[in-house]
Design a protein that fits this description.
This protein is mainly α and about 375 residues long. The protein has helices at about 5-10, 15-30, 40-65, 70-85, 100-125, 130-150, 150-155, 185-210, 210-220, 225-230, 235-260, 270-285, 290-305, 325-340, 345-360, and strands spanning about 165, 170, 175-180, 180-185. The strands form two sheets. The protein has a two-stranded antiparallel ribbon with strand order 1-2. The chain has a two-stranded antiparallel ribbon with strand order 3-4. Helix 3 packs across helix 9 (about 210-220), helix 4 packs antiparallel against helix 5 and helix 13 (about 290-305) packs across helix 15 (about 345-360). The longest helix has 27 residues, at about 235-260. The protein starts with 5 loop residues before the first helix and ends in a 5-residue tail after the last helix.
Amino acid sequence: MLYTAYGQEMALFNTLTKKVMVGLLLVLAAVAPLGLVDKDLKLLATACVTAIGAIGLGLVTGYAGQVSLGHAFFLAVGAYTAAVISGNPEGRTLGFGVQEILIWLPAAGIVAGLAGVIVAPLATRLRGLYLAIVTLGLVFIGEYVLREWSEVTGGTGIGRPAPTPALFGQRLDVATPIFDGYVLTRDQRLYWLMLILLVIFALAARNIARSRVGRAFTSIRDRDIAAGVMGVNLARYKTIAFAVSSFYAGCAGALLYVSVGFFVPDSFNLEMSVLFIAMVLIGGAGSISGAILGAFFFTYLPTLTRQIPSDVISGAATDTPNIFQLQLVLYGALIIGFLLFEPRGLFGLWIRVRNFWKAWPFKY
């Protein structure tokens, strides 16, 4: 397509085909609860929330080029901030009894974002592998603090109840009759909530990426020294990248707590950070759509591998090899495979397919 103006190229949906396809996809996603069972809706809701976290990591790693292995730490900050605000004041753990999602969800993001701002100065002095190792240290520090701070986390192996989502006084995590005996189940209501939030967070991230801030991120990623010479304030924009990414992670952690229903302090470990890195790399670094694709892919991968017959590979964790070991091998193999053959990830594969059909029947 030939663009005649910069604004036309940077438009949110710059072709009619994109507008139609996105519209159809949203309509299909909106009516999905009418044809899917609760088990599938819960998985979809979890995928939507995971996608929010992956988008946040994609902003700091894919767009700004700051490799962060501490994403699990920011997820934990958001999850437990929401749990404390929403928790029972008379329970065994700390709680303030505020169940309104319009309060605890932004609060979870803001507290995690402030934690990101505290870490950001390190990013102005370090880069590449050194920055990755420093952010990795956050995960281990966070694990230790969370294990010891039982008043907030509930303690190792015990945990605490997830935040209670209520909107304008109406709880969203309970089934509600609406008309003629039809009942909206918990999973239907939570799925719609997570889907709406994913759309909001994705549009916000896409707008950041195509703004002045997004262009500064890209210049820092491509060559930070050159960006600084051209007048890009490296300290300022790296701080913004970490703050925005941590805000997304905090919100995702709080929503993931609601969707999954249970976490213990040890859940926010190195494996979770690596999993989010894998989502960004395999989905497609530097792309909002790629982060969403990667999140959905990794959410559904365990479900797909569990379909393998037990006479091929055992489903018991005590056997070797088992299905869980196969999943870890697949994670590593997919990362290596995509980095070698398609660094743009699943989004790059989609671009290849789209370009093939646009040029068909000609090769070029």
